[in-house]
Specification:
Shape: globular
Strand order of the largest sheet: 1-2-3
Strand content: 35-45%
Mean pLDDT: 77
Number of helices: 1
Structural class: alpha+beta
């Protein structure tokens, strides 16, 4: 089991992450401001999350 990562996020971001469900992979952009998440169950990716 992979341990959870503690983070702070708005309710909107938490809702978006919850809607993705199980994830397959994630990658940060070279400047660490963008996060791409590959959702497992829906067979789509979510490349437009910008981190501040």
């Amino acid at each position: 089991m992979i341990p959870a990562i503690a983070f702070t996020a708005s309710e909107g971001v938490r809702a978006a992450l919850s809607a993705i469900g199980r994830t397959e992979d994630l990658r940060f952009s070279p400047d660490n401001r963008l996060l791409a998440i590959a959702g497992y169950a829906r067979k789509r990716d979510h490349p437009d999350m910008e981190l501040e």
